[in-house]
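Batch job 17 of 40 flagged for manual review because the log was empty.
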Amino acid sequence: MKRFFVFTCLAIVLFQSCKEETVSPASGLIAYTPRNANVVIKINDYQAFKSELINNNFIKLLKNTPAYKNTFGLLNALKYITPKGTSLLTFTEIGKNEFNYTLICKNHNDLFSIDSTVNRKVEEIKYEGASIKVLSIGEKQIFSTSVNNYFIGSSSRLLIENLIRNTGNLKADKNLEKLYQVAQNNIAANIFINHKESANLFQNVLSKNLSNNMVEFNDWTSVDASIAQDYIKLNGIATSSDSIPNTLNLFKHKSPASSHAAEIVPLNASFFIAYPAVNPYNLRTVQPKDSLFKNIEEFVEIGLNQVKVAAVKNNDNIDFEDKLQQFVKQKSTYRDQTVWELNTDDLLVTHLTKIAKHIKAAHVAKVGDYYVFAQNSALLEGIISNFQNNATLAQVSTYTNLRSELADESSVLAIANLEKIKDSGSILNPDFITGIAKTSFKDYKYAAFQYISEGNFAHFHVLLKKANTSTVNSNLVTQLYSTTLDADIVSKPQFVLNHYTKKMEIVVQDNENNLYLIATNGKVLWKKKLDSKIRGNISQVDLYRNGRLQLAFTTATKFMVVDRNGEDVSPFPLSFNSTITQPLAVFDYSNNRDYRFLIVMGKQIKMYDRNAETVNGFTLKETNNTLINSPKHIRIGNKDYIVLQENDGKLDILHRTGDVRVRVKGNIDFSGNEIYLYNGKFTTTNTNGDLIQVDQQGRLNKIALDLKENHLIDATAHTLSTISENMLNIKENKATLDFGIYTQPKIFYIYDKIYVSVTDKQTHKVYLFDSNAKMIENFPVYGDAAVDLADMDNDKKLEMITVGDKNSVICYKIN
């Protein structure tokens, strides 16, 4: 029994926004309930209910909260009482936030079971001709009396005295009695909550604002409790009087409807509350004849990182957008979606007073079937991004499984992410937050609450169940962050290793030649002004061989090495009079960090060591023709080769010294793709779309692949990937894409799995495939550049970076 108060406070009321009929005189147990009781629990099977509460895993998670501890202390003495048959346990507030219980049950000989070793004392006092027994066990006291063969025990003497004084006029609250009479008897317990008397009760768990919302929501709630080890299921009804303003009355005379809000609610949302059956004429004091929201069908409140946004669904979008224009200050676009900036932030408060009174919104955009209102454009951009990437609640099987156990249609539907709301001061009491700070709710994930209005009452459902980990989507893609830079991006974002944290960070350059280092969490650490655009990718090197990494790259006229703070590393940079035409080539022949750096300026080649000294042993100073790609170092067995591609079709395969090592028998009409080591051979393609392979004897072999003009390839030792028009090939497998403008396929080998990515720059879609050319679940996602893929934070889950809007870097997590 020591857990049911927490159960009552949390499981019933968490996230609810979140006519009187003549009845017969009360009889039986219900007549003895204290006036103004906050909670009444009808226990049909005492032992079963006790067992359900003790063994429920979720309730055990609350053991460090003040509400749990206070209840344990309050009810400790009741462990010696064993009722038979139906009993009532009530909680009543006497004095501010001072709650006392009352237990009402049939008298029987074995009601008390106290071991002889327990220190106890029994006293008897008289009050208005009646007897009150006082049982003291330790510091706890039970005050009790008997009336008509009923035992009534309480932690409060005052409650017992009140009962005795009113013995001749005992009757229950009419609303309570109506609910009591229709309560199910075939379950362990029924719970009745008096909302109007329970503001302080709710505040044991909930925030003050949400507790007030609970008080205003309806009069009484009755639930049938079904509690197992791994779930809590509550079904019941909520009543609301016409004579008192209640939120539940807003949904009277309006049929419940289906909500599709989960299709736009992002995965990082703390909660959402959907009202899919709203009547716009009930939502404000003034009747809106020509209101912006006169055609509203659904209103949705979404919690995002302590901030609330709202969404509305209309049955006439053209009329809505037309009326919206009078409130528009200016408009912009984000990912091809119009974003309106409003000239007021109280539009929702003014028009939807009764359900949106605390939501400020100065921006709005259409997302799916909804118009989403938010305080700032960044919130909207996040919702748009997640919607376009299918990173929404509707895609999560733990949510859909939970949702399938509720009714299809609702008047109010609330879904809460327990792990995300546990530190939310707008939802939970600060002391309660402290008590669960170190508790993980990841096994439960979501809790669901549902009201279905029907005349003067509403059906009420609560569901909290342990997630089946086998059904959790393993490849769900979520946007971790989008980092906006000071200018448009000109380079592909690239992961680099932080040698201190062993986590990945991001380097990228904008069109004003600023180089940025972005931290694992998306924060810009620094930016450094360069003379021009970086050629190709940035390499990481360890010049001092001490485990501390530097960034090495070339611009149009400089060879630069900078440390992780963005400072130049002496003796770099090196400056050149001629224009550098290819990316920096970095060779580490023996993996001992004795680097060789190759700089290409048209036909001219210069090689430097890690001290920025010219390597005299490299004799090749210039090729006959301009190089079309950066030099490559390829090792086959124990032999090192330096490979150069000249624009006249000559393939140079050299020794480390720059002397010819392999004479290739014939020229190649290079397609522009690089040389790769594939299946033990030097491999590329020609302009006819053939695969060209050269062995170590210089023999040239052509394999017809029928690749079209402008095809692109990537290859590793045993994997070849090509894209030609809309055909992506990975090994022997094919994937047909929409026609578009695609980036070079990029092969990644991570955790013994092959991934291949391409980006359609025309439609801004990033695709990710496995080695069988099967697209990874929940792709494509939004992106406008080639990607980099890695386990950024060492959690065995992959992160992917790309360009979002022209000046932003997006980081996705593949869960």
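Reviewer: the log was empty due to a logging misconfiguration, but the result itself is present. The longest helix spans residues 377-388. Unflagging and moving on to job 18.
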